[in-house]
Amino acid sequence: NNRNGVAKTDLKQDQGGFRAGGPIMIPGLLDGHNRAFFFVNYEEFRQPSGLTRDRTILNPAAMNGNFTYSGGTVNVLTLAAANGQVSTIDPTIAKIMQDITAATSGGAIQTIDANLNRFSFNVPTQSIRHYPTFRLDYNVNSANRASFAYNYQKFTDYPDTLNNFEQSFPGFPVAAGQASIRLGWSGSVRSTLKANLVNEARVGYSGAPVKFFDELNVGMFTGSLVPQQGFSLRFPSVNSNLQSPGPAPAPQSRNANSTLIEDTVTWLKGAHSISMGGTFTQYDIWAKNSMLVPQISFSVLTSDPASGLFTAANFPGASSANITAAQNLYALLTGRVSAITSDARLDEQSGQ
Fold this sequence. Notes:
This protein is mainly β. The protein contains 4 helices and 19 strands. Strands 1, 4, 7, 8, 9, 10, 11, 12, 16 and 17 form a 10-stranded antiparallel β-sheet that branches. A 3-stranded mixed β-sheet has the order 13-18-19. Strands 2-3 form a two-stranded antiparallel ribbon. The radius of gyration is 31 Å and the shape is elongated.
C-alpha cells in the first residue's frame, strides 16, 4: 500500500471447533452399543480484517465550480451568473461536499487530473462463519436401519465489501452487510425385506436463505451527517465517475430450496439385479427486492435553459467529452435533478 499512502490492512483469522461421536448412551433407557450412534462436528471461523478502497472525488477547485481542461479553466458558476442562470451551490450538495472533505482526513489523497482526486482509505471488516454438522444412525432391528444427517452453515459479513456496501467515506452513515445460510438435511430407512429384496426410502431438503443489506434504514439518508434529504443521491461522471455519498438503497432477500422424496426397491434374482421405484422433487424460490428510498440523478437536460451555457464558444478548444463533464459538474453543484427513480408496491389482494 505504499503507493497510495495508507497503512497495510489488518488480517487475523481465528478458527476453533470440536467433534464427538460414538454410541448413544442413556443410563437406564438406552445402551446404544451396536444399535444407536451419533456424530457431531462444530467449527467456527472469525476473521477481522480490512480492505483498501479508492474513491474519486472533486478537488477543492472543482468543488467551487472551476472546470479545467487542456484549453484553460472555466468557472461554471460564474458562467451561469453571467447568463442569468442559477449560480450558487445547492445547500444539500454543499453540506455533503463539506462532509466528504472532512472525511478525507482519514486516508490519503492523490491527484488524478486537474479536477479530480483519488482518496484511499481502509475499510475494517468482520466475517464470521458457523459450521455445525450432525449425524444419527439407528439400527431398529436386524432388518431395518435409519439414518439422519444435518448440515448447517451460517455466514455473516459486515460490511458487505463483496457487493460494495461499505461506507463511501470514513464515518459516513450508509453501510450494510450480508447474512446467509446454507442448510441441508436428509433421512433414510433401509429395510431388508428378504434375503434378496431390499427397500430404501429417502427424504431430503436443502435451502439457502440470504439477506442482503438488512441494516439499511431511512434514517441513514435523512440525518445531519451527509444529509441526503430522504433520497439516495447518485453523483454523475466528471471525466470519471464520482463516488456517491452511499451505496444504492436496495435491500433484498431470497431463498431457493428443494425437497426430495424417493423410494427404491432392489431385487436380486440369480445373475440379475432389478431396481424400481419413484422420485418426487420440488423446487421453490422466493425473492424480495425493494428500493428503500428514491434515487436522484443529476444532469442538465436538453430542455433546461442552462443547457445553452455548454457550447464550444464558452469552452474554447474543449472536446465534447470535456463539455459534458463541465455540464455534469454544474448539474451536481447546483442540484439539477434529471431523474427520480423509485418503486411502488401493489397489494396482491386489492390490486391497489
